[in-house]
Amino acid sequence: MTSPSATQDRYPYQNEPIWSRSEKALARIAFDAALKRELHEVMQETKQMANQISEPVDLWDLEHYLTQRRKEIDRKYDYRYSQLTQVFGKLLYESRPGEEDLRGLREDKLKSIRSFAKFLAEMDAA
Amino acid sequence: MTSPSATQDRYPYQNEPIWSRSEKALARIAFDAALKRELHEVMQETKQMANQISEPVDLWDLEHYLTQRRKEIDRKYDYRYSQLTQVFGKLLYESRPGEEDLRGLREDKLKSIRSFAKFLAEMDAA
């Protein structure tokens, strides 16, 4: 017999969705691709900002931009299964990845991810 | 009884050189020119580093470089007359400005400036 507590012992976060092996593989790919794209954007933006430097203050603007982006990316890309729904929700809200990259996740997860993206959009509009 | 602290209360900077009006004008020009040159170097180096960015780690190397340079420049360029001898000593040690930029300062100041530059060179060699 599989009791809830026995399940809980094996998996302490009972309210969190279980990620199947195929979902984990898909999540990893979507996560890595989104991170790679975002870092690529920062690289492009940095090159452009650097090219336009003409005053000392532009240097410290660039420094500030890099610090902010580094912190934001560190916070955003948290690959813990307990966080992934929110991570993908945030990414979806920012249109990275698009929903097509998440195809293959179970519908319950997609629903949570969409729901979190919607919440962020509403927060942003408020 | 005159204790060291009482002396300090009356005139805390008694061992510092007095800067004449013409020396102050000259110091300001040399100071601003050195700062401008150094910032220009950082701008050039930043553009070069940015052009060579090919991996995300290069972004954070650039951020670190900018933070370090900003802090170093903030520390170094301290335009208080109580600090100027050491400031110019450090700049001289780094060959910015050259001694020709300091021509017009009184010999006692040039001697102190050279002496501090020498001290830094010895520290560096140790």
Features:
homodimer; 126 residues; mainly alpha; 70% helix
Would you give an account of this structure?
Two copies of one chain form a homodimer. Chain A is mostly helical. The first copy, chain A, is 70% helix and 0% strand. The longest helix of chain A has 31 residues, at 21-51. Chain A starts with a helix and ends with a helix.
Number of strands of chain A: 0
Strand percentage of chain A: under 5%
Q: How many strands, what sense, and barrel or not for the largest sheet of chain A?
A: none
The greatest interface between two protein chains, and residues involved on each side, is:
A-B, 20 and 19 residues
Low-confidence stretches of chain A: 1-9
What is the CA–CA distance across the termini of chain A? Answer: 49 Å
Q: What is Rg of chain A?
A: 19 Å
Principal-axes geometry of chain A comes out as: elongated
Assembly form of the protein: homodimer
Average residue-wise pLDDT of chain A: 88
Give the H and E element order of chain A: HHHHH
Give the structural class of chain A: mainly alpha
Q: Please tally the helical runs of chain A, counting DSSP H or I stretches of 4 or more residues.
A: 5
- Helix content bin of chain A: 55-70%
